[in-house]
Design a protein that fits this description.
The protein is mainly alpha-helical and about 80 residues long. It is about 40% helix and about 0% strand.
């Protein structure tokens, strides 16, 4: 019965390992070089205290309304879609 014969003369495709190994080593070297090394700095810095007592994330944020020209431009662009 010819229903279960493989096309291509029965050759199996093989995956070449040399290029794959090269890529793995290149990625390994890249990540080793680009990794941040956690070593303490060789100096110490005395940072000044804040006068306001606020951290950057705690500063009050001023809400600004867009100008009339900006709103018109946004609406014109919105209508194009």
């Amino acid at each position: 019965m010819a229903l279960f014969q493989r096309r291509g003369g029965g050759k199996e495709t093989e995956l070449e390992m040399a290029p794959m190994i090269d890529c793995v080593f290149l990625l390994l070297i890249f990540f080793m070089v680009s990794a941040i090394m956690r070593t303490p700095p060789p100096f110490s810095a005395a940072l000044p205290e804040s006068e306001t007592g606020y951290e950057i994330s705690q500063c009050p944020r001023r809400e600004e309304k867009p100008s009339r020209q900006t709103r018109d431009l946004i609406m014109a662009l919105w209508r194009c879609y």
